[in-house]
# Entry
Amino acid sequence: MAQKEGSDSASTGSGKIERFSTSGFILAAIGSSVGLGNMWKFPYITGKYGGAAFFLMFIICLIVVGLPILLAEMAIGRSGRGNAAASLFNITGKKHWKWIGTIPVVTSFLIMCYYGVVAGWTLHYTVLSFSGSLSDVNTDFTAAFTNFAGGYAPLFWQAVVMLITGIVIAKGVSGGIEKYNKILIPGFLVILLILMFRSLTLPGAAAGVEFFLAPDFSKLSRASILTALGHAFFSLSLGMGCMLTYGSYVRKEQSLGKAALAIGAGDLFYALLAGLIIFPTVFSYGLKPDQGVGLAFMALPAAFAQMPLGAFFGGLFFLLLAIAAITSCFSILEVPVAYAMGQWNWTRKKAASIVCIFSFILGVPAALSVGGVLSFITLDGKSIFDVFDFVTSYILMPVGGFIVTIFTGYAWKRAGEEAGISGFWYNTWMFILRYVAPILIILIFLYSVGIIQPE
# Structure
């Protein structure tokens, strides 16, 4: 039987009601959105698609598409007071929505399998940097990363990430996720500011700032616009159940609209600071800003090796990446853990332990496929790691976002009450969710899988 819509008495499978504080929720949500997407992917796609013009397009897409879907996910979670699947059922009482709602749960679980591998890389490079092992300017950093990623050491660091994430999730919402985000996110900001100051004072840094902040609209193309749209969607952790699950822990008195604006602003602010760190450094040392994974793990270590106190600043940079990755891991793992608690009435510790173990096991082939012993296994030219990334990022996440827009726009009649908006803003929100967002999500999907190829 569906619970009363908007009830504040729903609990987890363990029977314990868990809630974020007002500031705790916003910090946890920002921690979820400020992952490697901001610190790693955003700079290199900005470099690839023309700098400032792309950044401006990203801001527009985040406001027009990202925030309305973010508000919808949080509203569903708080009204349904359940995991990503149960909330849809609790609101409507219709079982097909519960089955449809398992898609974001599966998405988050699969993301955790390979995201933990990349998070492990950042921990490894943090230790290397602070120890001075990356300080030799004669090091071939491309070969160094290839040798590391192609060996068995990534499995150890993946296990460390799973252990840290599992322990935090097992401690609960307020005692785990909120507590550690309140420590990590402010620390993250301090490190960002230190690195930004260092980057902006490098010789030739002005060229990087100009590239990042001086728009050249002649460089905009349909491909860059669709990429900006996709990144605005992905950078807020939409379509994978994270914001929906976190929304189920939000108190009734908290304004979801203000929370969405705060989360969007935080996401944008951190992306801005990341650009002001990476582009001045890249231009100062004559590097290319569009190198993908190589930018973080091959090119930038070469820059830090040449920089005064490079071991310290390089260590801070990779610590920054590690914090971004691990705070995102909290929200990603919480989705299947919350599902297991609600679906099978497991305790939080049991759910966190079992989900972590299986995430690690399934992540092993992904870790060993990046130049390792399983790199010979490919599907359409993609390694196992790339298949995980492609299926989740380009197929399942758009599907998850589409589910949220259709559910909120058409199946849920009292969405405005839970979201706390009415009149003009409600009508605008509904127009975006019913007509604009679904079409744009479909375009993102078609572009991502190569069905449409704009110039």
Observations:
- Residues 9-14 have pLDDT under 50 and may be disordered.
